[in-house]
């Protein structure tokens, strides 16, 4: 539309006032134009699109010259029309002194991620990327007297953000607004009580450089004094408003941090899988210093103080399997696993039944031993000692190691300080890599997913052996899966007669 009687900014502002007056969206088109605005997509439709679709809209045909419709034509009721605040008379550091809402600048920067849907976000994002270049702002700052040494909060009048959204809407034919309900408080924060500190004027900015060059002042002694002299009720209201400034991007910050943590965990899991495959010689020739895998599982009594009643240890020397084909799920390597089952003598008559069904008497892979509790750590060290003397590289293996490490600490053994320990493998994490994500699964579920039968779980000795078997299976199957992907073929888990016979 051409510039006519009014400048474009004045026209947009008055159009916005008309929309507020009517409580409906108003769109303008030239009288000879029959082009309709594009209909919003109903796929993944954001709330701003639904709001635009469901609300009645006035379309006003007008010639190219700007015409401001008379609100009286649309009803007899009178409406209060707010006049845009003028900050040209304010000097740097002067308090705002007006009863109008402010919007945290951080909330504006976070708006696309928090409140624009997938359909409109790519369209609107460029406007936010150049928000300082294409729009003028009046910046204010506000210190928290309770934290005088922290940087102040940066604010702009909410009205200016609404004008910005209106300009984006006019360009794109969409209906971005400040969200309703509780989220509106993030963008409309009042500081109307003159008895407490007010936002102070910083500068008028028309480009990014001017804001970058601005220096945020230190807290005013007057503001500190005002806060100290205010009543408790006045201070409480002020503190609540300041807390909204601090929380204005809280939800998006938490979401982004959670996503980043999940991404880093996924990277760590994939690196763990790559190390495991390398240790086993699956991705590259194993070095002369092949590691020794020390698999462990601990069982504790269900009742407090949760004394350790069983320790299972399963050892696989990677040097012994060099040159041996792994077979399905690494089953050709399973006969090389050495198994140990230690039952604390004092608790050998106790069996867990409340949360899991224990079976301490059903060790599948040899004979159990019964050291007294004061010699439990000594017996564990004796099993590992030959590999320590050989100065072998030891890798600790467990299924979700947190509990096992905690119980080892209870009995006085810090496995991470054991001589030769140089790494840790979590079969729960390996399983998540093999499954391309998904929630963590129990050992029995992992074995089931791999097609591996298991008997007498929750016996520490058995669980330690099954954990090491699961490690080999996941590493071998992930290698097969990667090979299939490189060839462009579908991967599926295959069973052989030899694999089935490995359980007998």
Task: Supply the key terms.
504 residues; alpha/beta; Nucleotidyltransferase, domain 5; 2 domains; 13% strand; disordered N terminus; nucleic acid binding
Descriptive notes:
- The protein is of the alpha/beta class.
- It has two domains: 94-247, no CATH class; 263-501, Ribonuclease H-like superfamily/Ribonuclease H (Nucleotidyltransferase, domain 5, 2-Layer Sandwich), CATH 3.30.420.
- Helices cover 38% and strands 13% of the residues.
- Strands 9-8-7-10-11 form a five-stranded mixed beta sheet, sandwiched between helices. A four-stranded antiparallel beta sheet has the order 3-5-4-6. A two-stranded parallel sheet has the order 1-2.
- A hairpin with a 7-residue loop joins strand 7 and strand 8 (308-317).
- The radius of gyration is 34 Å and the shape is elongated.
- It starts with 7 loop residues before the first helix and ends with a helix.
- Mean pLDDT is 80; it is low at 1-7 and 29-83.
